[in-house]
Structure formats: C-alpha cells, structure tokens
Write a structure and sequence with these properties.
alpha+beta; Alpha-Beta Plaits; 4-stranded antiparallel β-sheet; 2 helices; 4 strands
Length: 87
C-alpha cells in the first residue's frame, strides 16, 4: 500500500521518530514521509513509534491508499527531497 505519514512530536522525541520513519519511508518534507509499505511494515513502524510516543503530546497521522497511481501529487515551490532519483 502507498502511505503518507505526518508527525508532530515533542522536541525531545523528534529525532527518534525521524530516524524511525527514514527506516521505512522516503522523507519528502519536514515531518512528512511517503512510500510503499506492506501491512506488516506499517504495523511494525507504528509499534516501534508507540514505544516512545506520548499520546497526550505527540501525533502521528497515516494516510493510506492501495496504490500511488490513485493519488495526484502536485509540488509548488521547493521540493525538499525528490523520490524520482531511485533506480
């Protein structure tokens, strides 16, 4: 499935969630990641995030689609990290 993940974590935990998300997805902008994941990979990512996430302070939002072909993506302004360079 195609996933867009957005997070807002406290300053003390932001480095941990950034490192975790980079393990599974492509970083496209501050606190925003995208990429293809299996259900198991998504569950693993969320399970690992919940180990250090504080529910009363942090948020993690996941948008899911069956395929990125069903999603139109428009970039206006600077593209922080292009995913077009992958072979």
């Amino acid at each position: 499935m195609y996933v867009i993940l957005v997070y807002d974590f406290g300053e003390k935990r932001v480095a941990k969630i950034l490192k975790l998300c980079r393990k599974y997805l492509n970083w496209i902008q501050n606190s925003v990641f995208e990429g293809e994941l299996s259900e198991v990979q998504l569950k693993e990512l969320l399970h690992e995030a919940k180990k250090f996430m504080k529910d009363e302070e942090d948020s993690l939002i996941v948008f899911k689609s069956r395929n990125n072909k069903w999603l139109d993506k428009e970039i206006h302004g600077l593209e922080k990290m292009s995913t077009d360079v992958f072979l």
